[in-house]
Amino acid sequence: MKHTGLEEELAAVLADHQLELDDLEIQAAGKRRVVRVIVDGDGPRGSGPDLDQIADATRAISQALDETDALGQAPYTLEVGTRGVSRPLVKPAHYRRNKTRLVALTLTDGTGLMARITDADDRSVTVDVDGNPREIGFEEIAKAVVQVEMNRRLADDVELGE
Predict the structure, then answer these.
(1) What is the DSSP-derived secondary structure letter of residue 35?
(2) Is the pLDDT of residue 152 over 80?
(3) 6 vs 12: CA distance, rounded Å
(4) DSSP-derived 3-state class of residue 13
(5) What pairs with residue 143 in β-bridges?
(6) What pLDDT band is residue 162 in, cutting at 50, 70 and 90?
(7) What's residue 157's pLDDT?
């Protein structure tokens, strides 16, 4: 269920904190509601929001929700978090923010590949597939999900220009 007016209001609040509204979920939980706000942004290092930004934004969102009548008078629990690695990459900024990360891609022709993001712009992503660079237009990607690497070396980021 879309909450367009509330989404617009929260997007404006988040913009003041250099963040973007990625998703808004409101679910019933007994007599309360759970308001889940998923945020994204470049953050100070260009790879996503940091904890200070999230904390500041949470306070501002809480205040905005308290001042609006969009939720009515029912009590609510506010949860604010980032996209996390399990959400698919769908916007060019998602790819850019995940530069150097390993990603599982499913292409529109049905083929799949595991690759490391080396660059991204508004039209395409460049990935490293077994040492070979490959540029893939976003229109060619059906699904992309970051893969969790438990033993990732910090030097991997340096080698890819991070």
Answers:
(1) E
(2) no
(3) 10
(4) helix
(5) 106
(6) very low
(7) 52
Helical segments of 17-159, H only:
51-67, 92-97, 155-159
Specify burial of residue 89 (Cβ count, 10 A radius: 0-12, 13-18, 19+): buried
Which tokens hold the place of 135? 């540029």
| All domains of the chain in start order, with CATH | 4-82 (3.30.70), 92-159 (2.30.30.100)
17-46 per-position pLDDT tens digit: 999 999 999 998 888 899 999 999 988 887
Residue with tokens 């205040």: 63
CA distances to 15, 49, 136 from 10, rounded to whole Å, are: 8, 16, 33
**Stretch 50-71: mean pLDDT, rounded?**
92
| Beta-bridge partner residues of 25 | 36
- Classify the phi-psi angles of 130: left when phi > 0, otherwise alpha if psi is within -120 to 50, otherwise beta: left
How close are the terminal C-alpha atoms of the chain, in Å? Answer: 39
Position 68 pLDDT exceeds 80: yes
Measured between alpha carbons, how far is 126 from 95 in angstroms, rounded to an integer? 9
93 is written with which tokens?
């900024």
Whether 107 contacts 141, CB under 8 Å: yes
Core vs surface per residue 58-80: b (16+ CB within 10 A) or e:
bebbbebbeeeeeeeeeebeeeb
